[in-house]
């Protein structure tokens, strides 16, 4: 499998954060619309044992998150907890060299992400009022204004070519990512994909998206829990759109093995997430990058 990276430039606000499992799901819909339902069916046939693709979260361009391991293992000063919590970004080289104390803040990497509450109101088009009883009932939703983001893709080019990835991702960029795409949210432009070459052999790896650690045979696992309350999209959003909640290990988790291993991804596919659509599958895989080995 080959690892690629692209940098996206948002051209509208987003209503959903850039998480790898959500990106994977939306790309599956893009594959269906751009390449056909038969192509998607073939790609998902062996997904439980041999994933054709894994997708990362969106990260500040040029950086990856600080590993979610105890401050003592990061070498941080225990008396500076407040300052250290704000230092969250490292380069791949710093991760591999164990230079965790060199982490930078959002301001230092010029990350201009902002979240705002937007007031909206729904309209009943039968009565042309804002509610059944005619009262004014506004509600608020979060909107994200984001700077450029790097997204990583691990693909098996014997099944899913780089050109097919590019075509599918372009479909997603035009349609929009996440919620409220029908009112213009989630649009972005993206740069040409570039291959990322890493030595994938190590004892210690960091994940780039939420993943399922179930059945993982490792010595140590450091993570923060992440609960996914998923929903169906596309044609499947009209009948029981809600999926079952899934408990995952969040991005930035660290997996440490007894001996050196060569790994590009970890985790497993997750099935049985939908009552209405039993064939639905959720990305429980995560791309991993080798980092400085833990003692």
What does this structure look like?
There is one protein chain. The chain is an alpha+beta fold. The protein folds into two domains: 2-112 and 147-290, no CATH class; 113-144, no CATH class. Helices cover 19% and strands 29% of the residues. The chain has six helices and 18 strands. The chain has helices at 20-35, 37-45, 71-74, 81-86, 92-97, 162-175; strands spanning 2-10, 53-60, 64-65, 89-90, 114-120, 139-145, 149-155, 188-190, 194-195, 201-207, 220-222, 225-228, 246-249, 254-262, 265-267, 270-271, 281-282, 285-290. Strands 1, 2, 7, 8 and 9 form a five-stranded antiparallel sheet that branches. Helix 1 (20-35) packs across helix 2. The longest helix is centred in the first third of the chain and has 16 residues, at 20-35. The two termini are 29 Å apart. The mean pLDDT is 92.
Task: Reconstruct the topology from this structure.
Layout: E1 2-10, H1 20-35, H2 37-45, E2 53-60, E3 64-65, H3 71-74, H4 81-86, E4 89-90, H5 92-97, E5 114-120, E6 139-145, E7 149-155, H6 162-175, E8 188-190, E9 194-195, E10 201-207, E11 220-222, E12 225-228, E13 246-249, E14 254-262, E15 265-267, E16 270-271, E17 281-282, E18 285-290
Antiparallel strand pairs: 1-7, 1-8, 1-9, 2-7, 3-4, 5-6, 10-14, 10-18, 11-14, 12-13, 15-18, 16-17
What's the assembly state of these chains? Answer: single chain
Number of helical stretches of at least 4 residues: 6
Q: What structural class is derived from the secondary structure elements? A: alpha+beta
pLDDT averaged residue by residue: 92
Radius of gyration over all CA atoms, rounded:
20 Å
Roughly what fraction of the amino acids lie in strands?
Answer: 25-35%
| First-residue to last-residue Cα separation | 29 Å
- The number of E-state strands comes to 18
| Domains, number | 2
SSE string: EHHEEHHEHEEEHEEEEEEEEEEE
Helix content: 10-25%
Low-confidence stretches are none
Overall geometry comes to: globular
Describe the biggest sheet? 5 strands, antiparallel
């Amino acid at each position: 499998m080959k690892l690629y990276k692209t940098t996206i430039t948002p051209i509208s606000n987003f209503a959903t954060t850039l998480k790898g499992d959500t990106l994977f799901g939306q790309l599956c819909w893009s594959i269906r619309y751009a390449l056909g339902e038969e192509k998607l069916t073939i790609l998902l046939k062996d997904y439980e044992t041999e994933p054709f693709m894994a997708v990362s979260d969106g990260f500040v361009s040029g950086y990856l998150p600080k590993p979610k391991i105890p401050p003592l293992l990061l070498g941080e000063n225990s008396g500076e907890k407040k300052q250290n919590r704000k230092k969250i970004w490292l380069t791949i080289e710093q991760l591999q060299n164990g230079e965790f104390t060199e982490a930078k803040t959002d301001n230092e990497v010029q990350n201009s992400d902002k979240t705002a509450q937007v007031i909206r109101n729904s309209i009943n088009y039968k009565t042309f009022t804002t509610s059944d009883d005619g009262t004014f009932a506004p509600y608020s939703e979060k909107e994200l204004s984001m700077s450029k983001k790097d997204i990583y893709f691990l693909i098996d080019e014997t099944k899913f070519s780089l050109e097919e990835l590019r075509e599918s991702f372009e479909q997603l960029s035009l349609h929009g990512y996440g919620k409220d795409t029908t009112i213009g949210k989630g649009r972005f432009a993206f740069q040409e994909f570039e291959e990322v070459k890493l030595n994938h052999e190590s004892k210690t790896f960091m994940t780039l998206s939420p993943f399922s650690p179930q059945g993982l045979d490792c010595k140590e696992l450091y993570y923060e829990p992440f609960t996914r309350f998923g929903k169906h999209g596309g044609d499947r959003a009209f009948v029981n759109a809600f999926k079952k909640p899934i408990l995952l290990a969040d991005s930035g988790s660290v997996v440490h093995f007894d001996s050196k291993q060569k790994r590009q991804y970890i985790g497993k596919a997750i099935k049985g997430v939908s009552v209405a659509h039993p064939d639905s599958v959720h990305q429980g895989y995560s791309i991993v990058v080798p980092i400085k080995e833990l003692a």
